[in-house]
Write a structure and sequence with these properties.
By secondary structure, the chain is mainly alpha-helical. It has helices at residues 11-24, 34-53, 60-69. The N and C termini lie far apart (37 Å).
């Protein structure tokens, strides 16, 4: 994996390397879990929406829904 700076301010290569190492190694845990990834994804998408619409996005119902699904 190259060191080029692209998406995620250059972290794409590091994340891909972590996933690859996790898949081929039995003793390498990913630095974050699935739930944290989902939360970060929601925040990133809503930040983009907020910027595009120039508005504040209320995520209360989204977090409540996600919390209920994860019970």
């Amino acid at each position: 994996f190259g060191k080029e700076v692209k998406g995620h301010y250059g972290a794409d290569s590091m994340m891909a390397n972590d996933v690859n190492t996790h898949l081929v190694s039995k003793n390498f845990n990913l630095p974050v879990g699935v739930i944290e990834c989902m939360e970060a994804g929601v925040v990133a998408m809503k930040l983009d929406e907020s910027i595009k619409t120039n508005s504040i996005i209320d995520l209360t119902s989204t977090w409540n829904e996600l919390d209920n699904l994860l019970k």
